[in-house]
């Protein structure tokens, strides 16, 4: 894939997923906007507000002036407080106001992406106030695909409208999450040198991956099959996603092998804040 194709693939995946969000929420009755999601403290309205807020910030829009209530129990740190402010600001917005702002934001961001860099290594900045940081443009796009698609799935589960579990954004999200597996197994779970851990994932997006810990204690992930792994997890793709993103109580996970090591791996499996 050329540099231009890489950037365009991320833009296309982002577009498909955020337009799916727009289609999901456009016909919702008023009460559906208040349904809780698996994001702690956030309703359907709040997730959509978060999507609007981040994309607006990437467009350079000023953050709203607003004071957060002091009784929001799901606020556990300064980053959460930063993300919550534009969400809380929109809690009084009506359904038409929400869908109108979302559609307008999608139009503006789509135009900005079409006119943006084509070089995946071009310098970019994630504008998050005191949490802002610099990164290559392709990495920024991949993060946005990941965030938008995960929140699309949050909304789908809350509304009981499954779909897009094997979309282009789902594949990008899978690969992004797999990058964190060596850290989960080797560092967070403390798997000893020589350990092999397999993940057999079924469902709309099937894959098999093995994490191997080398003599230096470093983990790596590959697609080869290990005939006798120390631990093997068998689970469906949506369960894997929910575990990796810290969402609720996922479905069943079949575990074979070292149960104690498996428990440590699952305890540190969530890669999102």
Structural features:
273 residues, alpha+beta, Four Helix Bundle (Hemerythrin (Met), subunit A), Nonspecific Lipid-transfer Protein, Chain A, 2 domains, five-stranded mixed β-sheet, two-stranded antiparallel sheet, 9 helices
The CATH architecture of the largest domain would be Up-down Bundle
Count the strands?
A: 7
Order of helices and strands: HHHHEEHHHEEEEHEH
Shape: globular
Widest beta sheet: strand line-up: 5-4-3-6-7
CATH level-3 fold name of the largest domain: Four Helix Bundle (Hemerythrin (Met), subunit A)
Beta-strand proportion? 5-15%
Which runs of at least 5 residues are low in confidence (pLDDT < 50)? none
CATH superfamily of the largest domain: dinb family like domain
Structural class: alpha+beta
Mean pLDDT: 95
Cα(first) to Cα(last) distance is 31 Å
User: In DSSP terms, counting alpha (H) and pi (I) runs of 4 or more, how many helices?
Assistant: 9
**Radius of gyration over alpha carbons?**
20 Å
Biggest sheet character: 5 strands, mixed
What CATH first level of the largest domain would be assigned?
A: Mainly Alpha
* Helix fraction bin: 40-55%
Indicate how many domains the architecture comprises: 2
Overview of this protein structure:
The chain has 273 residues and is an alpha+beta fold. It is 47% helix and 13% strand. It has helices at 3-25, 44-58, 78-89, 95-114, 137-159, 168-178, 181-188, 237-244, 259-267; strands spanning 123-126, 133-136, 196-202, 207-213, 219-222, 231-236, 254-257. The longest helix has 23 residues, at 3-25. The model has no long low-confidence stretch (mean pLDDT 95).
